[in-house]
Each structure stands twice: as C-alpha cells, then as structure tokens.
Write a structure and sequence with these properties.
Blueprint: E1 3-5, E2 17-21, H1 25-37, E3 41-45, H2 48-57, E4 62-66, H3 74-83, E5 90-94, H4 99-107, E6 112-115, H5 120-141, E7 150-151, E8 154-162, E9 166-174, E10 179-187, H6 194-212, E11 222-228, E12 233-239, H7 246-254, H8 258-277, E13 290-292, E14 299-301, H9 339-355, H10 365-374, H11 380-383, H12 389-398, H13 410-421, H14 430-437
Parallel strand pairs: 2-3, 2-4, 4-5, 5-6
Antiparallel strand pairs: 1-3, 7-8, 8-9, 9-10, 10-12, 11-12, 13-14
Helix pairs in contact: 8-9, 8-13, 9-12, 12-13
C-alpha cells in the first residue's frame, strides 16, 4: 500500500512530488530518506500495481521505479502510463548496466535509467533534471494559463486544479460592464509524440461531445470547446461552480441527517437520469466527480472524460476505464457497459455517503476485481442499527451483482427515493422483500 511522507522543501523545485516504487523495502526506504533530505515530497509504493492505484488518486511530478517487481513490473507501469497518455517522467532503476538496457528503456518512453547500485548524487541529479523537464512540459502544455493571459477569448483568472492530462482554470469573458465567470479545461499536449497526442485529442473531443448533449441543473453546463492559437491548444469551457467535491466533504456529510444525504443522492441520480436519457453512460461516477455546495447542498456532476456514447466504439486504449473502487462487476470484464453500471457506481457512492465507508475495501485493482463481483457488502443495519430498512433495500438493489436486477436507469431510482421520502411503499416485489429479509444481498 502506498505511503506518503513530506518534508519542507525550500529548494525551489516546485512541488517536488516524487513517487518511489520498489518491492525491496530497504532500498525503497533508503531512497525515500535521501530524497526527503534533499527537500522532495516523497510517496512510496511497494510495486507497480500499488503505484498505479496511488496515481489514480494523486498527482506526482516524477516516478522512480525498479524494473523487476511482482504483480506489475516497472516496464509494465511505464507502458500503462504511456497508454493512458500520461507524460510524467519515469526514471527506471535496472540491474543491467549496459548500453542495450539503456536503449531499451528509452525506446519505451523512460526519461532516464539508473543502474544498480544507485549512487545518491546521480539520483539527485536525474530527479532534478526530470523535474525541470516536467516544469517545461507543463509550462508549454498549459501555455496561456497564467493570470491575465487570454485563451480562446477567455481571460485566465487563476488555476483551480491540475492533473497529469490537463489544467482547469477560472476564466472570465465579457465587457468592462458585464463579465461572466467560467471554468476552462486546457489539455496538456505540448512535447507529446504524435500518436499519443492524437489519442488525447480524440478523448478530449469525445468528452466535449458528451458534455454538449446534456442540459440539466445538476450537470455542470457545457459552453463550448475549441483549439486555441497557432499551437492548437485544446480547451473546453464549462460553467463555473464554486464548490468542493463530494470527496472533499464526505467527512462532514457523514454527520448530516439522512434526509440531507438523500437530497444529495437524489440530485446525482437525477443528473444521471438526464445523461442516460441521451443514451450516454457516464462510467466514472465517484465522489471526486460530484461537486457539492455544503451550505445549500446544491449538487452537480462533472467529467465526461470516459463517458460511453451510444454510437461510439471508442475504448481509449483499455476497457478498464473509471475508478476501480466504484466500478460495476461487469466493468472489470467488458469494455461496453450500460447505464446500469452507473447505477451500481452510484450505489457504492451512496453507501459511502450514508455510512462513512465503502462497501468494498480492496486496496488494489486485482483485489477489487475479485471482491466486487463476488463479495457481499456488510449490511447497512449491521453498521448502523437505526438505518432505515427501506433505504437498505434501495441500496441493495443498486448494488446487485447482475445488472438486470438493478434499477434499469437512474430515473427509476429517483422515483424510489421520492417514495421513500414521502413514506410511501417502494415499488419492490414481495419476493425481493423476502430475499432482503433473509439478508441474501449482505454479509
């Protein structure tokens, strides 16, 4: 399982986020201690699989990885990163100190390689060089993201967030008398080889096409997209919703009453209902893609980066798209899932929202791929004896292993939640209620 340690920087090397990946505990910890002393922020992962899990939730600037490791090797990790269009510099540590090994490393996209035994001075130099390269990448890719710069007619105000593939900024457009605020997503494509750049553009246009089809008060509103300047910088303009994500507010939401939580869940379900009505499967329903105003509880869903359109065969390089902890059982085995996979993902989110923990606790993709199709989650009433029985029944149906047994779409779920709030009988068969009473869906 990855761990993170931080140190005061003071070296002028930006955020200095370094991920050290090695199954050799002694070497990994030695490298970590050395890099911390040099002022870098260091995270650790025990192998390539653990590193991949960590990278799904965290941004890093440089990866240092051993080549030979169990589960996922350093080479496989690098290939996965390049397949996902990530441009993070990767330094490979290899036990083969020869020219042929170096050439092989560079051919698959490594920034550099270091042969064993690792010399601290060389490690420091190569990490600094990789960070410098990364900064140049970001500055070139995010050209026009500085305050006051103009991109596509929008004046950048500030950077809101940054990931490995893009930058999201607050921007303004209008006249001196009337100015509107927007969020603008800018894709990082500078310095990327042509084939990978083409895949990134394809995914970007795919997201824009999906977002442009939806108009709903609980979906972040799409404005426009385009390619700016001579550099053809791709950008996507959306409404600006000044709110944190549900991921950031889960802890405080756990202390709210059931009705407040249902209010949030209903808004997400209503948004997904509108998405499903267009024949689109979102495929990445998770707390990080739900924005929530903690004061008003207004909720909006965002990010169509991996959405599946009805007429599209686009798989974006791999069928394993989305966030594994929230994926439906069928998503681990099949590239094309439907709206009922979103219902399952929303069930995982709802379980976490109501109970403060996820129904499936695996810390790696292989473990989750085993747990989610087979494991029965702990019954909500085992965690909280006061949890409403009908609400447990609703969660049970959302989390069915077989897609055919779930709510057919999110709009059906909205109706069921409304009946629960009005204290009306759910539209649930006597047989389903009997199965629920026998706890067949729960552990």
């Amino acid at each position: 399982m990855p761990t993170e340690t931080t140190s005061a920087s003071g070296t002028g090397w930006g955020t200095n986020r370094v991920l050290v990946v090695d199954d050799d505990d002694l070497l990994r910890r030695t490298l970590t201690r050395f890099l911390k002393r040099e002022g870098f922020r260091v995270s650790e992962a025990t192998d390539g699989e653990a590193a991949w899990e960590f990278l799904e939730a965290h941004d890093v600037d440089v990866i240092i990885t051993d080549v030979k490791m169990p589960r996922r090797t350093g080479i496989e990790l690098l290939e996965s990163l390049r397949e996902s269009c990530s441009a993070i510099p990767v330094i490979l540590i290899t036990g083969a100190p020869n020219v042929e090994a170096a050439v092989d490393c560079m051919k698959i996209g490594a920034f550099d390689y270091i042969s064993k035994p690792v010399k601290p001075v060389r490690l420091r130099e190569r990490v600094r060089a990789a960070l410098s390269h990364r900064r140049s990448q970001i500055q070139g890719a995010a050209l026009g993201t500085g305050p006051g710069d103009v991109l596509g007619g929008y004046r950048i105000v500030r950077v809101l967030g940054e990931g490995n593939a893009g930058v999201v900024c607050q921007a303004e457009k209008g006249t001196a008398d009337e100015t509107q605020t927007y969020a603008i997503k800018i894709l990082k494509v500078a310095g990327i080889e042509e084939n990978r750049r083409e895949r990134m553009l394809q995914r970007f246009l795919h997201e824009a096409k999906a977002a442009s089809r939806i108009s709903h008060p609980n979906v972040i509103r799409f404005v426009e997209y385009g390619l700016a300047r001579a550099e053809s910088i791709p950008y996507l303009v959306m409404e600006y919703f000044a709110a944190p994500t549900l991921k950031d507010t889960l802890q405080s939401m756990h202390r709210r009453n059931v009705n407040d939580k249902i209010r949030v869940l209903r808004q997400v379900a209503s948004a997904l209902g509108a998405i499903h009505a267009e024949g689109i499967c979102h495929r990445d329903v998770k707390p990080g893609n739900v924005m929530l105003d903690p004061d008003t509880l207004l909720t909006k869903i965002s990010d169509f980066g991996v959405a599946q359109l009805p007429e599209s065969d686009l798989t974006l390089g791999s069928h394993l798209l989305g966030s594994p902890a929230y994926m439906a059982p069928e998503a681990f085995a099949c590239a094309h899932v439907d709206r009922r996979a979103d219902v399952f993902s929303l069930g995982v989110l709802a379980y976490e929202l109501f109970l403060g923990e996820r129904p499936f606790w695996g810390q790696s993709v292989p473990l989750l791929a085993k747990q989610i199709p087979r494991m029965r989650p702990k019954a909500p009433r085992r965690i909280d004896p006061d949890f409403p029985e009908d609400l447990q029944l609703i969660l049970s149906r959302m989390l069915k292993k077989r897609a055919s047994q779930r709510y057919d779409n999110a709009t059906d779920l909205v109706g069921e939640l409304d009946r629960f709030v009005r204290r009306e009988p759910l539209r649930t068969s006597a047989w389903r209620r009997l199965k629920q009473s026998l706890s067949s869906d729960w552990s």
